[in-house]
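User: I'm putting together a small comparison set for a docking exercise, and I want a reference complex before I start. The sequence is below, and the ligand is adenosine-5'-triphosphate. Could you produce the 3D structure with the ligand included, as structure tokens?
Assistant: Of course. I'll restate your input first, then give the structure tokens for the complex.
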Amino acid sequence: MSDRGPAIQTHRLAMQYGDTRVLDDVTLSIGTGEVVALLGPNGAGKTTTIEILEGFRVPSGGEVQVLGETPHTAGEAWRARVGVVLQSWRDHGKWRVGEFLDYLGMYYTDYATAAVERPWPTTDLIERVGLAGKTLRRLDRLSGGERRRLDVAVGLLGRPEVLFLDEPTAGFDPQARRDFHKLIRSLSDLDTTILLTTHDLTEAEILASRILVLAGGTIVADGSPDDLRHRMSATASVRFRRDGHLHTESTDDPVSYLRSVLAEPGEIEDLEVRRASLEEAYLALVHQVETGADTQAASFGILPDEATETGDETDPTRAREGA
Ligand SMILES: Nc1ncnc2c1ncn2[C@@H]1O[C@H](COP(=O)(O)OP(=O)(O)OP(=O)(O)O)[C@@H](O)[C@H]1O
């Protein structure tokens, strides 16, 4: 992470659809060049959050800044610095890969600077996203994985400073997923700030240096995958056989427990001490939030302590549009 200040920042962000409050108090800060995964159960408000950051939705309350501007009021010059990979976008089936990117790329020409060549030259970009050899392929003849690569190419066309990826690998087969991870990791040399949503904990761990968990309308965990695993899962499971009998124990202090076990007479076999996996830690955290139990989140990440402000209703005038 660089020290150039946050690329993305929200303070007590709130979002209400009719009577339903989806985001209650989302406060986060993402530094330039960070790759961050936003996780949360279905309906937690991940897409809503991303769409506010993209400028497609107006929040009901709170503040939001992306690259120093308020997204829903920012102009075209700001938009040219932001890349968006939507969950799905409208078809342009008869276009061919190369001509489609060439056409969209024209939009960025005016936003080129001495430091940043815009648009990304189509031939290079096609190669970078792993579509070499597909330049003349019609979009409606691309496979699902190839199509998603094209989505990423569209998101990268303007060499964005911030890239939003909403469930980028949904529906991918394992190979396509692996290729996609390689592609995203290869972008780290561009210093692009990336915020992605996913339900795949392994993907979050592979791609992101930091995980944010959104649940109950707020960020309940914020840290590295290791932080999440260790801080949210103090409990370890200890399993062993003594004199042929199986013993299992869940304990918050496996070292002391093991000492007491070893002090007892009898031969120990098949000893196994296991920390919760990242997925188990995540599921436990979400369960705690959903059932209102103590989340330990205060010691883990951001937990603003003031009441949430409310503001204007959703502005539906900026409809979400594909490329
Ligand atoms: N335009 C809308 N009008 C009313 N309710 C909406 C609207 N958009 C989203 N919602 C509701 O807001 C909640 C959050 O939706 P959102 O799509 O942001 O969640 P999510 O975390 O991305 O979910 P998923 O993991 O299922 O994609 C859901 O209950 C959804 O039904």
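The mean pLDDT is 84. The chain has two domains: 6-232+277-299, 236-275.
User: Thanks, that's exactly what I needed.
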